[in-house]
Amino acid sequence: MGEIIVNFPAPVLKAKSKIRVARSSSYVEIVACRASNPDRQGHLDYIFPIFLDKNGQPVAWNIPYLNPSRLPILDTNRMKDFGWLITHASTMFSSRESKLRATLDGSHPLSVQDSRLLFKDTLFSLYTSFAKVQRLNCKVFAITCGQVGLQLLFLRSSVRLDVSNHTLALDVAIIPLHQERGMPVPGFLVPLSMNAGATMVIGEDEVKLWKRLLPTFVERCRGWKHKPTCEYKTESRIPRSVEFHKPALCSCGNGIFPPNFISDIPTWETVSKHAVRGLIPLLFTLPYVDPKDNLDGGGKQRQVRCEACAGEVLLVEVPAYTLEDP
User: Fold this and answer.
1) Residue 79 belongs to domain spanning
2) CA nearest 159: which of 258, 77, 263?
3) pLDDT of 252-304, one tens digit each?
4) Which of 24, 131, 159, 171 stands the most exposed, by the fewest C-beta atoms within 10 Å?
């Protein structure tokens, strides 16, 4: 029969796997134990992993592939009608993370804090900035590292409704930067400084986490083909590198955008050749990473009826999240 490859939706432990063969029923069952700490068991920063298949093509493991052009666009000029957006984005944080988030202190080295929590915090700021929740027309979101310098630029195209997954997605142009600290800013970036923008200062560990995730955000909405000379294939790795001053993405998708992808940045035609399209999701807590929140642990409970089926549902009132400046 040859070799049969079995794919699992999450990292498993090979040493504890068992194979059961039912000869009378003619089926094979594989029982495998999930890795409790994927990042310590061979899957560093296990968030939306992406790998190269046997042909050298990228394959996103557990994130939905989407055609962003078919997703409804949220009218960010009517954000006064969308107060739910902050609530929805806040559900990224579990109870444990919410408590830790309230104690984040910039005076402590960021490397000793939870890089995933810090990533979510930056993601929250990215969403609220591009959705105009703060009443600012933010077009460009910059990520910089105090020790390294400017690392990433996100240019807003639209905030879209990911209907099939009941969430949101940011349709953006991504410009990764990898110049040495102290070097002059590339000429094509100078005009962007004239546009309304926000800047987030993050730590080195979080920068590396962003670089690990960028290929997935690009691949999930890719509408172009990788070239035979794709750097992922020739270098046999994805991302290409998470080190500073080295590129994480291949160059196959640079400059490939639909017409009028970004219309409110006058220099877009010049900048676009250095950018690639990406679709950035919200990152929600997984039950095997954080225990299920205890509904009896705090807050007031009350019974109401579902507007759709009239069935009784339990609601728990929890403290509201405050919106912080990016």
Assistant:
1) 40-281
2) 77
3) 999 999 999 998 888 888 889 989 999 999 998 876 566 655 544 444 545 55
4) 24
Q: How confident is the model at residue 9 (pLDDT cuts 50, 70, 90)?
A: low
Q: Does residue 23 fall inside a structural domain?
A: no
Quick check: 141 and 153 in contact, CB under 8 A?
A: yes
In a domain, 227, yes or no: yes
- What pTM was estimated for this model as a whole? 0.77
For residue 260, tell me if it sits in a domain: yes
Residue 243 lies in a domain: yes
The number of beta carbons lying within 10 Å of the beta carbon of residue 308 is: 6
Angle CA 142–48–39, to nearest 5? 100
Phi-psi map region of 56: left, alpha, beta (phi>0 left; psi -120 to 50 alpha) = left
Query: Between β-strands 140-145 and 197-202, what pairing exists: parallel, antiparallel or unpaired?
Result: parallel
How many structural domains does the chain have?
1
Distances (CA, A) of 277 to 106, 178, 188, 224: 32, 18, 18, 10
* Higher local confidence (pLDDT), 117 or 193: 117
Using the Cα atoms of residue 244, residue 216, residue 39 and residue 128 in order, give the sign of their dihedral: positive
Contacts of 146 (CB under 8 A, 6+ apart): 201, 203
Measure the CA–CA gap between 260 and 252, rounded to whole angstroms: 20
Structure tokens at 152: 């990433």
pLDDT the model gives residue 116? 85
Instruction: Tell me the CA distances in angstroms from 246 to 81, 239, 242, 253, 320, one per residue in order.
Output: 42, 10, 7, 18, 40
- Which H helix or E strand runs over 166? none
The per-residue pLDDT for 163 is 94
DSSP collapsed to 3 states, 79-111 = HHHCCHHHHHHHCCCCHHHHHHHHCCCCCCCHH
| The pLDDT of residue 68 is above 90 | yes
